[in-house]
Amino acid sequence: MQNFFTYRNGILHAEDIPIPNLAESVGTPFYCYTTAALEYYYRLFQSALAELREVSIHYALKANTNIAVVRTLANLGAGADVVSEGELRLALAAGISPKKIVFSGVGKTPVEISFALQTGILQLNVESEEELGEIHRIAATLNTVAPVSFRVNLDIDAKTHHKITTSRREDKFGIEWLKIPRILRSAVSLPHLHVVGLTTHIGSQITNLQSFRKSFMRMRNLITQLNASGFPIRRVDLGGGLGVLYDSESAEGLPPSPTAYAAVIRETLGDYHCQILLEPGRFIVANAGLLVTRVLYVKEGSNKIFVIVDAAMNDLIRPSLYGAFHAILPIKEPLLDMSRQTVDVVGPICETSDVFAHKRSLTPASPGDLLALDSAGAYGATMASTYNLRRLVPEILVKGDQFSVIRRRPSYKEMFSLESLPPWL
Ligand SMILES: *Cc1c(COP(=O)(O)O)cnc(C)c1O
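That is the input. Now the predicted structure with pyridoxal-5'-phosphate docked in place:
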């Protein structure tokens, strides 16, 4: 795979821009994305699907919701998978047609359902019988017909991190697959529902094709059964979840290529004349972004060295939350013969879990040095918080030799402006 963050003249660049120039412009920490990488990964995914008859890509916004990122993908023809009214509004503002938007999630509120129906989205992925009833009721009051697809819980373990596995029987997602025929039968008689197909999504950062194959086969069996009982299925949404490479040195958990993933779709469902929807998130954006941070202190502990940086778990929570690995790149290119040190790279937050890397072998860092956490384009900025009253960090988008601040750092005044004192204080 191509890399869009490369050393030139000994300095890490994003496309044609030296990272230190960006740090000078917005201060650290900040996220940096590149347009060429977004376009590359989107097109790589798209071209892998070329042999499938009717297929559409609905970028899962929750991986990275910055409007400039979404607009970049929209310009390539991407649709969207959204999980809240906020994401739906952002997708529309970024220029994605409602006819290319699917709405997922186990807990859509009545306001969200109503808003989605009024914008005229492609489909609502329904996760329970109870939600189906609510959608029908709301569609009736709006005097419209709701396009619904049933999200199937396939009772399959995707063999990824347990916090991002979503289609085991005990998970909260989807409708038990055994119940689908009965619910479908009752739904087709309701005047304000139009059942458009089936949906599944088995989890995230999936690195074994076998899990996809098993779940798509189960979808196939379900479709065969429904077709035979007089409910022809014309549209299948297969969700997202394709994993990416985080650790290229050890190549641990090597993900399948999008071509191999597409082959599994073709082999399991290719002969069915269904429209196929896919909802990739991480695959498109993960390797299109860095989190750039500055070293504050190098502290000699009793038996280890701590590199204390100015980014923290509130800016990028994946290491603390999932034990995720992010490669750490020095901005100054290490010389080949440079010695290495085993260090812990940690943030300033008052939590022992505020650690980006344990026992990592890095070239020696000094206060003031810039470092980049690699593969931070997905589930980085979108999962950030203001814990410890730290401000959300800026995001920058690079294109060739240009860059633009696509989210600025708020002032403290702005950050505090939503709070107020009660009259008795
Ligand atoms: C999170 C999510 C996705 C995207 O998953 P990735 O692993 O980022 O590809 C797609 N569909 C649904 C329903 C999701 O919840």
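The longest helix spans residues 209-228.
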